[in-house]
Write a structure and sequence with these properties.
This protein has 312 residues and is α+β, with helices and mostly antiparallel strands. The protein has helices spanning 2-18, 22-42, 83-92, 294-297, and strands at residues 44-48, 62-67, 120-123, 132-138, 143-147, 150-153, 156-157, 159-160, 164-168, 175-177, 180-181, 192-195, 201-211, 216-221, 231-235, 240-244, 267-268, 272-282, 310-311. The protein starts with a helix and ends with a strand.
Length: 312
């Protein structure tokens, strides 16, 4: 009799042990998500380049790391997911919308410090919750203007090198908008897009190298006269920065009003979300849902590229 009871009890005990503790699993998942969001909010987060405003240094399809602590933290720092926007983007394929919720704005930064001229930063335009990526050109107290495409800081034109050309290999033709492709010849009359010897598209761009007063250098795209080539003199207020894209003739930045998707002039430092550090990897337009296309879509040699402007 005792043997029968023991035999019955053993399977019951095994069943109890085999049951999933869903409450414990849920708590574990919650803490994991919280840890990831905390890391994204206060340490670093990934960022994807969706536009050509920072050519030639940053190409559509680049993935990079943004440090969140470099300038301290503000109301734009926390990463708070927006489930509705995520559903619209992933499932409904609706037009691009930020996948995060922004906290109410407040003045100042916790452990804040200003960026350096030449830093590449993530910025949230005032009144929006979308992220842009631009370069810091002007700092508080600077007198800045743009005349004929030349940036003038405190009465001194920023040094510009001679016009030369750069070929962006493996550019791929990534779609960046309805009816618009990367390096579109109609948008880049001074450049060209054609297949190279490897069969992939190459983009040839006219380049001018700028050197800021602190000696930091970087390449800009020079396509000729454009709307942003002239900007009236402005004194940058305290705790504000003036930002510009490296693709000067195809960048909506501090030179343009928010009604034209620009930044509306100098930007409060509270709207800086972090500093771009380095590329993790880059994909051209060859990747589809077919996994066999994935290896060939990687751009060789870009992983690990530093995004800190060189110094002369």
């Amino acid at each position: 009799m005792a043997e029968d009871v023991l035999a019955t009890a053993e399977p019951e005990a095994k069943k109890r042990r085999a049951r999933t503790d869903w409450w414990a699993e849920t708590k574990g998942l919650f803490w994991l998500i919280l840890a990831v969001l905390g890391f994204h909010s206060f340490i670093a987060k990934p960022f994807y380049i969706p536009s050509e405003s920072m050519l030639p240094g940053l190409e559509v399809g680049d993935r990079l790391v943004v440090s969140k602590f470099t300038y301290g933290w503000s109301f734009v720092s926390p990463t708070i997911p927006n489930p509705v926007a995520i559903f619209k983007g992933l499932v409904l394929r609706e037009p691009e919308e930020s996948w995060s919720v922004q906290l109410p704005a407040w003045h100042g930064r916790l452990f804040g410090r200003l960026p350096e001229r030449g830093d590449v930063v993530i910025v949230t335009p005032p009144g929006t919750n979308n992220d842009y990526i631009k370069r810091v050109i002007g700092l508080p107290g600077d007198r800045l203007q743009v005349r004929g495409g030349v940036v003038i800081l405190n009465g001194v034109p920023v040094r510009r090198g001679p016009l030369h050309y750069v070929d962006l290999a493996d550019y791929g033709g990534v779609p960046i908008g309805e009816g618009q492709e990367t390096c579109d010849p109609s948008q880049y009359p001074s450049g060209s897009r054609a297949p190279g010897a490897d069969g992939k598209l190459h983009c040839r761009l006219p380049i001018v190298t700028e050197t800021l007063p602190n000696g930091r250098t970087y390449d800009t795209v020079e396509l000729g006269p454009s709307q942003g080539d002239d900007y009236p003199p402005v004194t940058i207020p305290a705790n504000h920065v003036f930002l510009m894209g490296d693709n000067r003739d195809r960048s909506a930045d501090s030179r343009f009003p928010t009604s034209e998707l620009g930044l509306g002039g100098p930007v409060p430092w509270e709207n800086l979300g972090g500093r771009a550090e380095f590329l993790t990897f880059s994909l051209d337009g060859g990747m589809t849902l077919n996994p066999l296309t994935w290896p060939g879509a990687f751009r060789a040699g870009r992983a690990g590229t530093s995004l800190h402007a060189a110094r002369r």
